[in-house]
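Hey, I'm writing a tutorial for new members on how sequence and structure tokens pair up, and I'd like a real worked example in the thread rather than a made-up one. If someone can provide the structure for the chain below, I'll link this post from the tutorial.
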Amino acid sequence: MTAAYGDTRLFIGGAWQAGRAGEIAVVNPATEETISHVARASRGDLEDAVAAAKLGFSAWREVSTFDRCLILREAAKRLRADAEATAELMSLEQGKPVTQAKGEVLAGADIIDWFAEEGRRTYGQVVPSRHPSVTQIVVKEPVGIVAAFTPWNFPVNQAVRKISAALAAGCSVILKGPEETPASVAALVRAFVEAGLPAGALNLVFGAPAEISAYLIAHPDVRKISFTGSTAVGKQLAALAGQHMKRITMELGGHAPAIVFADADVAQAATILATQKFRNAGQICVAPTRFLVHEDIFDAFTDSFVEKARSLKVGPGNDPSSQLGPLANERRLTAMQTLVDDAVGKGARRLTGGKRLGNRGYFFEATVLADVPLTAVAMNEEPFGPIALINRFSDPEDAIEEANRLPFGLAAYAYTRSRETIRKISGAIEAGMLSINHHGLGLPELPFGGIKDSGYGTEGGSAALDAYLNAKLITQA
């Protein structure tokens, strides 16, 4: 099926509608051409969205957890049925290869299914009383209206975690979707709506991020904030939420270290790490970025890694043979060149890549830099693109120290055959997620979140649902 890419509207109170603040152009990053427009919400649209979400919450919270599960399972079914078309839309507007886009959509359906079932298990508690005539119980209740803010790098995957957890808990949602990738987000929302959600339970708006966040976070009817994006913006929104005593979940930036010890399976480590580094053109918050490789295997690892990078077929996402698509926008293209020039200027060795490809579309070569000084900007700020930074170590303690040096703590990776090394790094690495000898992050049943400047809370596993529930004590004599 070939997806028809048209303009994307707001979805408020059960109806698709134009935005009162006009439209925003949507650009295909592979061609730099405007392919459609997305509606821009005004303050009046936001007021309508909150009013609709308030009514939607009143209706949705009264639906039994069993029936909520059925509706969410139906949404997952519909998302799977439309996976091909949604993937084509995503590839056009975001740039990733259509095979990766389809994988994202299907993974999104799995996330809906998991939260649908987990929502049926929002158990309370009976607390033994000190007096025989007193009954003490704790019940779980939905927090209320959720304002969710999602980015463009995984337009379905990032939104579906927030929507699924919130709806499974009985909350209503106002989703502020990414203007760069509106059609795939709209397709996700449509799957939920067509599954039978009451009007207002799920709403979708687009527009100026600062205006929307300032209005929704401060609104007294909005009780929960969930944000995925940069650390800088996340801190601003968290501070604003704190002023209004709003519950938050923040999934922020990372700069994931990948330690390859001397006893690692070099071929396996290089293959897995290179694949994960360049997936989605490196625009992944958990992408391995700082590669710390033992000096005894440094040459073997870098040779294998570079070979993998050079073998990637670069092209538009809708070309079935493409493995590395364009960056999402011109800003990322400029940022990549600036980071590479800075690192090479400070002494890094460029093993492959390092420049834009062609003069049309935001394509950038898979880039590998070695012996990168710590003064390089890329060693301290998240590259968020197809740049791998490979340095050597001799003492494992130095590798651990470097892994923990930055204020980020989202994901980390390690490759070793030693159980003692695994035991040591499991306790020593400062990250919300550590994957050893494979890439095992992002499954619906597993926690997904960081520590330090990489965020607060989790968007995966059973703990993710708790963020959308209030625990209420009822004690009765």
